[in-house]
Amino acid sequence: MTEVSSLTGRLLVATPALADPNFDRAVVLLLDHDDEGTLGVVLNRPTPVDVGDILEPWAPLAGEPGVVFQGGPVSLDAALGLAVVPGDGPGGLDGPPGAPGPDGTGGHRVDGSPGGGPDGSRSRTADAGEPDESDEPEGLLGWRRVYGAIGLVDLEAPPELLAAELGSLRIFAGYAGWGPGQLEDELAEGAWFVVDSEPGDVSSPRPETLWRDVLRRQRSELAMIATYPDDPSLN
């Protein structure tokens, strides 16, 4: 298979033409992308469930709105946490201890028990390796960098280990996954725009406007698409 140029750390922004209801006006942060597949979380799907209802110890660190977000259609019973470490420089990709691996294992179930496997068809198939604690940022146990200042949180760690260092935390139930070549096919079909992420995207206090906000800040014709009506028949 031809080597894939990694899009890890970038955003997928659904085009108005994307018909899949799971991703209508979705903004997806890519946590892992290589020739074995792709894994990400949808940043703008808040649910009515408070973080305190499923992960009470982490609720004080959750940003507004303090609810669980639906990260995607795969493994909806597994939770993962994303948080920004302010001022942290760019870095490499590492999987977090206890966070879902490419096959959905690990992490934390939304009922409080250890993580679960995928229950959807759009899952990665690569095996998850054992976490290597030596790869954690020095002095910050329980957080693994994904890209720049954005990292995944070990939800089985004591929150007090991270409370002083983290920016606002966001909890996701489920994730979005693509097998080898699937995302590339969707990109070729024009289903997604690929744009740079900003640390604030993870914890936007107004997720309902994130799709338009991300497009509006682009210095290209994409900024015009931010005005696209919710009902295409009104265009």
TrEMBL record:
Residue segments, region Disordered: 87-140
Family under the similarity heading: Belongs to the UPF0301 (AlgH) family.
Acidic residues bias spans: 129-138
Membrane-crossing residue ranges in chain numbering: none
Biased composition (Gly residues): 88-105
Identification of the protein by name: UPF0301 protein M1O15_04590
PANTHER family xref list: UNCHARACTERIZED PROTEIN YQGE (PTHR30327), UPF0301 PROTEIN YQGE (PTHR30327:SF1)
Database matches in InterPro entries: AlgH-like
